[in-house]
Amino acid sequence: MTYFKCNxxxxxxxxFLLFIAxxxxxxxxxxxxxxxxxxDKKVVFDEFYPMKISLEKKLNKKIDFYYAKDYAELLxxxxxxxxxxxxxxxxxYVKLKENFKDAEPIIHxxxxxxxxxxxxSFVKFLNTxxxxxxxxxxxxxxxxxxxxxxxxxxxxxxxxxNYLGKHDDVALNIIKGNFDAxxxxxxxxxxxxxxxxxxxxxxxxxxxxALVANNKTLDDDFIKELKDIFLKLDKNDxxxxxxxxxxxxxxxxxxxxxxxxxxxxKTDIKDKDKN
Amino acid sequence: xxxxxxxxxxxxxxxAIFTILLLVLIAIYNIYLYKEKxxxxxxxxxLISQRIALDSTIKKFNLLSNYIFDKExxxxxxxxxxxxxxxLESENERRLYKGLFFRELSKTYExxxxxxxxQLHFHTNDNHSFLRFHNPSKFGDDLTNTRESVKYVNEKKxxxxxxxxxRVSSGFRNLFPLFYNNKHLGSVxxxxxxxxxxxxxxxxxxxxxxxxxxxxxxIEPKIFENQKYLYTTSLVGTQFxxxxxxxxxxxxxxxxxxxxxxxxxxxxxxxEIQEKLKKQEAISENIRVxxxxxxxxxxxxxxxxxxxxxxxxxxxxxxxxxxxxxxxxYLILGIILGxxxxxxxxxxxxxxxxxxxxxxNWFFQINxxxxxxxxxxxxxxxxxxxxxxxxxILGYDKNEIIGKNAHYLLHYHEKNNYSKREDCNLIRIVKDxxxxxSNDEYFRKKDGDLIPVEITAKEITNNHVLEIIxxxxxxxxxxxxxERKDLLKTALNFCSDSIVITDKEANVEWAxxxxxxxxxxxxxxxxxxxPKEFIKSGLQNEEFYEELWKTILDKKPWKGxxxxxxxxxxxxxEELSITPVLNFKDEIKHFIAIKQDITGKKIREKEMExxxxxxxxxxxxxxxxxxxxxxxxxxxxxxxxKHIALLFLDLDKFKFLNDSKGHDYxxxxxxxxxxxxxxxxRSVDFVARLGGDEFVIILEHLPKNYDESEIICxxxxxxxxxxxxEIYYLKNFEYQTTTSIGVYILNSPKENLKDVLKKxxxxxxxxxxxxxxxxxxxxx
Lengths: 275, 780
Description:
The complex is a heterodimer. By secondary structure, chain A is α/β, with parallel strands linked by helices. Chain A is 42% helix and 21% strand. Chain A contains ten helices and 13 strands. Chain A has helices at residues 2-27, 41-59, 71-79, 90-99, 142-151, 167-176, 186-191, 220-232, 235-238, 258-265; strands at residues 30-34, 62-65, 85-88, 103-109, 117-118, 120-125, 133-136, 160-163, 181-185, 197-202, 206-207, 210-214, 249-251. A six-stranded mixed sheet of chain A has the order 2-1-3-12-4-13, sandwiched between helices. In chain A, strands 8-7-9-6-10 form a five-stranded mixed sheet. In chain A, strands 5-11 form a two-stranded antiparallel ribbon. In chain A, helix 2 links the parallel strand 1 (30-34) and strand 2. The radius of gyration of chain A is 20 Å and the shape is globular. Residues 1-6 and 14-27 of chain A have low confidence and may be disordered. By secondary structure, chain B is an alpha+beta fold. Chain B is built from 25 helices and 28 strands. In chain B, strand 3 and strand 4 (171-180) form a beta hairpin. The radius of gyration of chain B is 71 Å and the shape is elongated. Mean pLDDT of chain B is 88; it is low at 1-6. Classes of the chains: A alpha/beta, B alpha+beta.
C-alpha cells in the first residue's frame, strides 16, 4: 500500500512537472538568452546580435537579452527559471550544474582555430619584472581564480588580487600599469598584445563556451530542435556572428567538464579581493 | 409707365461688392505677404539661433580639443613614445612603447570622456587606425576610403574640424597632424559624442529636444557589419539612419520623445520638407501635432567634401511665435467672416432698398395710374407732392404747382366766397384730426375755370411731420355722364317699344313705361319676377321656348313673334327680340327684351288672307282656296290606299230667285245653304263656294274599296239633298229649292284639278239631266 502511495505520488509529481514544463514552453513566444555578464551592452550586441536575429528566424520566436551584474546573479536567475538559454564558460557551468541538474549543455562554440576548447592565459605587461598584484575577472570565471591559481601552481593566495569583472578590463588595467599580471581568456588577451601585453602561461584545453539550456523552461524536443539548428547552420550564416561564436559548433555534453571538475577538487575559489 | 428713380447706392451695389471683395483680397494678400515675411524672419531667426547654439557648442568642443591636443597630446614625451611605437624595428619594442603610450595617455582620456569626448583615435600617416582609446582592441584597419577627414589631415597636414560619420560612431571631430622631430607621424582625432552635443545644446536651450539623423549614403558603406544593428532607418525619411535609436550605448543621445517621433512621421509625409532635405537645406518649420504647434529646425552637417553627413534636428513647443503667425488663420477667417457679414448686410440693405424702391415704384405706378388727383401739403397748405392725374385735372405742370399754397391756388374762389385758409372747412376738419369728405367742392384750374370736385383729405405723418393728403376727383365728366344717363333713361322711357331688362335668370330688373302700357303691369308688380309668370299665354309650345332659350344662352340674339297675355288676360301679338348682355368675362349678365305690339298687324294679315281665300258672302273658302286645298289633298293620295270624292253641286233654279226677288234674296239663300252644308259634312271634309251658286265638297279619308267609298258618297249626297230641300226663310219670305250633285270618286295622285272638275261637272250635268234634286256619281 505504501509502495502504491509512493508510486502514485511520484507519478503525480512527474505529471505536474511535465505539465509545468509543457505549459511554460507552450506559453513561450519569447526566449530569454543571457550572454556573459561581464560584457558591456555594446559588446553583447557586437557579439550576439547577429546570432539572435538568425535564431529568431529559425525558431520563429523572439529572443531577448538578459543582463546580469555577475555570474553569481546570472546562475541564481537561471535556477529561478528566469533564463532559458545561457552562454556559459566551463566553470560557471560546473558550478551551476552542482546546484541545478536541469542545466543542459547543448553545443560548444568553436574557437578561431576550429577547436571547441579554449585556454586561459596568465598575462603581464612586457617590461613588468615582478608580479605582486594580479587582476582577475570574476570568481566564477574559468579564466579567473581557478585558472590563475592553477597556472600559479595553486599559489595565488601568495599574491594580492582583485576581481575586475571583464576580460578586457583585466588586459587594459595590466597595460595601464594598474596590475602586474592577470588572467583572462587567451583569445581576448591576444587582442591586446599590440599594446604590450604578453602571455606568461596558459592552461590546457578546457571545454569551450557552451550554450546551456534550462531543461525546466524548455522541453527536450525544443532543446533537440535547437541543437539541430546549430549543428546544421551554414557557415555563411554564423561566420558573420560575434568574434567568439563565429567559428562553428560542436555537440556538448556534461562529461566534457570532468577535467574542470578535477581542477576544482584542488581549488577553493575565493570570491573576495585580496590586497 | 415711367420708372421712378431708385436710390443711388443700390445701383452701385455690385460695384460695392466688387470693391469690398477686392479690398478683402488685397488685405488678405498683404497680410499674407506680411505674415510670410514675419514667418520667414521667425524661421530665419530660429535657424540662426540654432546655428549659433550649435556653433558655440562646437566651438566649445573645438577649444577643448585644441586644449587637449596642445596641452596633453602634442607633448614631446608622448610623441616620442608614439614615434617609437610606430617606427622601432623590434615588434616587441613597438608593442612595449605603444602600451606605454596608451598607459601615459589613458588617464587623460578618462578626463576627456568626462568632458564629453567620445573618441580619441590615433592614425598612422598612411591613414590606418593605430590606436582607438575608445576601442583599444580594434586597430590596423585602413581608413582611406571611409574617413575623408583622416585622409585630409594626413595629406594637408593641418588641423581640421568637421562632422563626419565613422566606422564605429559618428560625430564632430577635430583632427590634428602629429609631428615628431619634423617627422609626420600621422594624426590624432578627438571626437565629440553626439550625446555631448545634444546635452550641451539642451543646456543652452532647455525647451528644445535635439536629435541627429545620419545620411544613409554617407554612413552605410563605412560601418562594420556586426554593428549595423545599431542603425535604424529614420522616421524622417528612408534616406536617413538613426544611430543607436534604442540607446544601447551609454554615450548615445537620449531616445526620441513620443512627440518628436510623431513630428518625424508627419515630416516624412511633407513633400516640401522632403524636397528641402534632398537639397540639404537648413529648415525651420512649424508642425502641428496633438493640437499643439512645434518648431522643428533642421541644420545640415556637411563633411569635408561638402556632402551631407547628417542633420541636427531640434524640436520645441512653439511659445514665441509672432502673434500674426499664430493668429493668421483666425485673422483671415475674421476678415472673411467680417466681409461676408458686410456683404450679407449690404445684401440685406440692397434687398430692403429694392423692396422699398419696388414698393415706392409700385406706389408711384398706382399713384400715376389713378384717375383721381392727389396732392400732399404741409400743415400750412404748401404743396409738397402732386400726382400726374392731379396736374392733368388742374392743367398745371408739376413744377408750377409744387411749393404753392394749395388753398389759395385751388380752393379760393367765388363758389367758396373767397374764404381764407383759416376758414377753409377742409383744413379745419383735417386739423381737428378728422377725415374730410365732400362732393360739392370746386377747384380752380390753371385756365381759371372752376371744376366740380369730390374731395377726400386726411392728416398723415411723414418722418414725424404732419402733412395733409388730399385726393380729388373731377366731377365734370360724372355730371356729363349723369346727363347722358338721364337722356338715355328718358329715351327708353319714351320709347314706344316695350323694353324689359332681366338678370341672367330672366328675373325682371327694369321695364319701361311702354311695357306697362302694353301689358298693364306696373314695374313694381313685375320686378324680380320672370316674364313667364305673368305674361305667358300658353299658346306657344315647349319647343318654341326651348329654341328661344337655346339661342340666347348661346349668347346669340333671338327674334321672333309670339302671343302673350296682358294683365287683363287679353292676348296680344308681340314681336320680341332678346339680346344677351355679356360681362368682361364673356358671361351673360342680363337680357334685354324689346317687344313690339303687332296685334293690329296680325289682324290685318288675317283679314287680307280671308279676302284672298274666302268668300266674303258665305265665309266659305273660295275657288283659290279650294284649288290649293285640292292640290294638297290629291298629293296626299298614294298607292291607292284611300279614296277621295269631289262633290260638285249647285242650287236648282237659283237664277229664277235672283231674277224674281233680287240679288239680296239670292245672297241670303246662298248664306243659309252654306251654313247647312257646313253642318252636314263631316269635320274632315272641305266645302267651298266656287262662285254664283256653285259649291264643291271634298270628301276625304274614304275607304280603299271603291264601292264602300261610293256608298258613303251616296249617303252624304242624299243628306245634302235633304237639307237643301228644307224651307229657307229669306227676309220672312219662305222659299224652297233643291240642289243637284255631281260626284267623282278618285284615288290617284296623278289626277289634275281641271279633269276632276270636268268629270264632276259632267256628273252634275247628268244629275240635272235626271231631273235635278238628285246626285250622279261619275262612272269610270
